[in-house]
Give the backbone structure.
Amino acid sequence: LESHLHKAIERDELVLHYQPKVDVRGAKMVGVEALMRWRRNGVLVPPGDFIPMAEHTALIGPLTRHVLSTALAQVRTWIDAGRPLPIAINLSARNLHDEDFASQVAGLLAAHDVPADLLVLEVTESALTIDPERAQQMLKRLSALGVRISIDDFGAGYTSLGQLTKLPVSELKIDRSFVMTMAEDPGNAMIVQSVIDLGHNLGMTLVAEGVETEQSLTTLAGLTCDVAQGYHICRPIPADAFDVWCAERTLTVPRPARPSEASSSITAEASDGDLAR
Ligand code: C2E
Ligand code: MG
Ligand code: MG
């Protein structure tokens, strides 16, 4: 699998799908998360089937660089089209332990001419628990570049709360296991509420993952969550389908990437009831 995956990078078989992150209260697109798939013999292999293996080898380095480069090229295309969307990519623990990683990120941002604040790097709690000192140093270096840091799957791992206050984190993503069950499980609803309050008290933006129903979206708005991501809004889709999805909705892009690039508004009739907001 390792050697096949190596060839997959060279053959350009690793593709990114994009899933929007939207303001819980409606009409604003806050960003997009890039999620990797492997187009292997005509079948799309999900990341869970090959990333854990790659994470145990040095392959995760070139793999992450490939994702970063592809994602930044896509952002450049969106900026040129008047839609400067922040993009999030997922990191692995090994990336945080690679001494060169921050300079690689800086190099790729420059190569694609993308402002650093349009890049969000998502790290899971577990990535922070392996050698926390080193991870913390790397996050500080990345943050100093102007890149934003997000903690993914929050609540499912073991971040110490003390560590959370020391990290340059601007966003917390509440693990989807809590969000998807909060309607029927009062305990999980309480966890969602508490994480939102905790994150807000630390000055962070709160993102709920796994938003699969309108009811969930309404509950999250009531709990003052900031951003929603999930199948109810849109599944992860290829870039061309994502552009169509945007064109079919009235969504405002947050802010211009450069002073000269005016904030754009994408206006058109929504084609279905999913996010006709
Ligand atoms: P993640 O970063 O937490 O990404 C969210 C996952 O939840 C994605 O699964 C997405 O398709 C799925 N999802 C989104 N909305 C919903 C929903 O409403 N309901 C449900 N049930 N699921 C939803 P995916 O694409 O299979 O990715 C799984 C994980 O693989 C990601 O979790 C991330 O940890 C990892 N991953 C994906 N791409 C990359 C990558 O480029 N690099 C690294 N290192 N990891 C990646
Ligand atoms: Mg993620
Ligand atoms: Mg997640």
Notes: Confidence is low (pLDDT under 50) at residues 256-277. Residues 33, 90, 122, 152 surround magnesium ion (ligand 2) (CB under 6 Å). DSSP finds twelve helices and eleven strands in the chain.
